[in-house]
Amino acid sequence: MKKFLVLTIACKLGFMAHAQFLYKFDHGILHELSEDRKEEPTEFFQFLSNSNNYISLAVPASLFVAGAIRRDPGMKKNALYITESFLVSSVATLAIKETVKRQRPFATDTLIIKASDGGSPSFPSGHTSEAFSIATSLSIAYPKWYVIAPSFLWASSVSFSRLYLGVHYPTDVIAGAVVGSGSAWLAYKANKWLEQKRSRHEHKLAYLF
Predict the structure, then answer these.
(1) Residue 133: exposed, middle, or buried by beta-carbon count in 10 A (0-12, 13-18, 19+)?
(2) Distance CA 58, CA 134 (A)
(3) In this structure, are residues 124 and 179 in contact, taking their beta carbons and an 8 Å threshold?
(4) 139-174 pLDDT per residue, tens
């Protein structure tokens, strides 16, 4: 019984220490960014943040159109995969947001001044999730350094923009990156499994006939 009580107390103390560390981590970074915010960088980071919506749609759409023009089924297939990754990421992000219902940082801390809009719950960052979904799926589809490097540079910049604008905590952004990248990986694995299943089915049909 004594060992159980000691273990329980230790767990509670550990949890409190962990929670305190995350609080200082989240708020400390946003306090510094809010204090040092300047007009020109703010406009630039707002542009980066806004670019997420356009690029997330433009990448798969451009691939599909190019694939149709070139009659390249591989490009159209990659366009579909990137779209699937984006949708999985969006659904997963929305589900987590509505489950956790974390308030935006500017709503709970008066020292954090927002420089952009943010309406839905804070955790995880939707912009980050979508950006990393696009970057990861594009990199999986085209594993070349000249695709991977700019893709993740853009996704990381979008993520940082959400911090600079004061609309997300660092832990929101980290979670968004995990959800986005994980969604791309899961979509890739799901497509591979379906392809293998279809291939086995076609092989069986060919053997029967």
Answers:
(1) buried
(2) 10
(3) yes
(4) 999 999 999 999 999 999 999 999 999 999 999 999
Q: What is the pLDDT of residues 79-117, one digit of tens each?
A: 999 999 999 999 999 999 999 999 999 998 988 988 887
d(Cα 50, Cα 158) in Å, to the nearest integer?
9
Closest C-alpha among 140, 133, 144, 135 to residue 180 = 133
DSSP string, 39-51: HHHHHHHHHHHHH
Q: Which residue has the tokens 């993740």?
A: 152
- CA–CA separation, 162 and 45 (whole Å): 8
- Measured between its terminal Cα atoms, the distance across the chain in Å is 70
